Amino acid sequence: MAYQITNRCVGCGVCVRICPVAAISGRRRKRHRIDENICIDCGACGRICPHASVKDPEGHVCDRIRIRSKWPKPAFDPDLCMACTICVESCPTGCIDLKPDRGSLKTLRRPFLKNGRDCIACTFCAAECPVDAIVMSEVKK
User: Fold this and answer.
1) Domain 68-138 is in which class?
2) Domain regions of the chain by residue span
3) Domain named 4Fe-4S ferredoxin-type: which ranges (predicted)?
4) Three-state secondary structure along 24-54?
5) Which of 79, 103, 106, 116 is 20 to 30 Å from the Cα of 36, by its Cα?
6) Which residues pair with 112 in a beta bridge?
C-alpha cells in the first residue's frame, strides 16, 4: 500500500514538487491524489506537507519536518563501505555519487552526498547498504 492523501489536503502542490517519481497529481486548491502504481514509498510528501494530510502505508498521519535542511541525510562510514554503488543506484533523486578521487584506498571511489538539497531523506541508501555503512543523521551546521 502506498502513501495516501487525506481530505485535509488543500491543493497547495508542495507534495507534487517534491515527489521524485511524479506519483502525485491534482489541480490547485483541490485534493491531490497519489498513484499507488507509481509511488515508491519514500515519504517525502508526508515530511513536506504543511497540512498533515498525508498518511503513510500503515495509515498514520506523517509528521512534517518543517525545515527541510533538518531532514536526515546519509553519513557514510569509509571503514565499512566497500564501494559497491548500491546506495548510488537506490537513490531516487541522484544526490549520491562516487568520489572521482583515485587517491588512497580510503577515498577510492567512495560514495558521498553530492547534493544535499536534493536529498529527500527516504533512507533507501541506508536500507539497501549490505554492510550498514550508511546511517541517516541530522545535518550539523
Assistant:
1) alpha beta
2) 1-66, 68-138
3) 1-29, 30-59, 72-101, 109-139
4) EECCCCCCCEECCCCCCCCCHHHHHCCCCCE
5) 116
6) 97
The residue with cell 541508501 is 125
Note whether 92 and 122 are within 8 A (CB): yes
**pLDDT (tens digit per residue) in 25-74:** 999 999 999 999 999 999 999 999 999 999 999 999 999 998 888 999 99
Q: How far apart are CA 54 and CA 25, in angstroms?
A: 14
Nearest residue to 96 (alpha-carbon basis) of 83, 113, 81, 109: 113
Sign, Cα dihedral of 36, 37, 39, 40: positive
Grid coordinates belonging to 33: 491524489
- Beta-ladder partners of 55: 4, 61
Report yes or no on whether pTM surpasses 0.90.
no
* CATH pick for 1-66 out of 3.40.50.1000, 3.90.226.10, 3.30.70.20, 2.40.240.50: 3.30.70.20
State the pairing for strand pair 73-76/24-25: unpaired
